[in-house]
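Can anyone check this?
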Amino acid sequence: MKGKISKSTLQLFSKNSTVGERFNDTEQKGFHARKLKTGLGLYYRYISPTGGRKTIPLGSFPGLPIEKARAILSDYIGRIAAGEDISETIAQKKQTHANTAEAYLKEIYDSVLAKKGDGKNMRADLFNHFPELLKKPMSSLTPRMMLHWQKTKENENLNPQTIKKVFSYFNAMLNHAAEKGGVIDENPIKKFKLEVRNATPEEETLLRLKRNYLDLEQTQQFFDALDKYQEEKRVQRTNSRNHGKPHLPDLTQVTYVDYVKPTMLLLYYTGLRPGDALTLKWEEVNLKFKRLTKVINKTRHKKPNPTPIPLSDAAVNILQIWHKQNGSPKFGYVFPNPCTGLPYKKLYKPWEKIKSLSDLPSELDNYTLRHNFISHLVMNGANLLSIAKLAATSVEMIEQYYGHLQPDLQVKYVNQFASMMELNFQENIQIL
């Protein structure tokens, strides 16, 4: 079939043709459309400057408008006339893209990140902080490029520890590509050492504030804000039911209007990481024995076995009410999104809402409830090993980030030991 290729002629051709048929353009020799199982493909057939006929794809119709297809075609014809083999150029570009860090990330490394508890955040950091480097072939990366990247991040006032963290993500991906992916012979920046400046006092202060705990007044504000949140939801639902949506459930008859309050309270009473609470399943909860056994998301690639965590009476009561309110399920997520049945990804928006309903400091993030749990245990003199087990972390982490809350702890232990030894010594003297 022949004729001028246009929107109308291609629509007619698509309707009346069978798979494999061609529509040849009468205005430009070699330009044609082909009926495919998935629609229409636009192509250009030409004589290569190196000899022989070759066909290159331009795009699919109607995704590629005819006007744009002719513009691309005009560019190709000029380059072919100048001696360029467009087919080879396209093949080289495809090969180059296949060797980029971005292609490796999407095609292979995604599955590696999926096995990590914070894999989604790591993937987001790679795309957010390395947009230009990801587009380059991995073998072409150099230490100089990384120095330029570091300087750019410092000029953006990115925290030094954040620079160090996201660089480790990028470097780990390159190591994987060399050692397991078989895509590159070796990590091209393996000899590059990232040297970041120390955090300024202001930055340290901000980090300390984010890892702060709630005082008595702030704790009351937190609980009051949860009640305000629930009341707002109830009022909104009542208004909706009164204005054309009577089919919506009446929230005045339930203890929790949605997942926000029970999730926040569970975080408060257990110190769980937000991600672990959001992905918690009923089969991991034992209300009778007041404990949960959870594979911690952050460390599941290293520690695949469940971590037992005892639950306080307050935490058990929250889960019992929520369990009964949702039909006493035996399996499935504890806090699923009712629209998808899957866990909510983050608690950022609910936490911001709770802060807006109170006078809590704006710098507090949704890890505050975990910090609050650990901090109060430390300040009350709890054994650091016990705290580490309750928080599913290491003693070293507790000492590093919360040790300042027990400044005299080591002196206390030394004096306890001395007193105990002195008492034993005196008892032995009396016996003699």
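Reply from J.R.: I decoded it. The CA atoms of residues 290 and 313 lie 8 Å apart.
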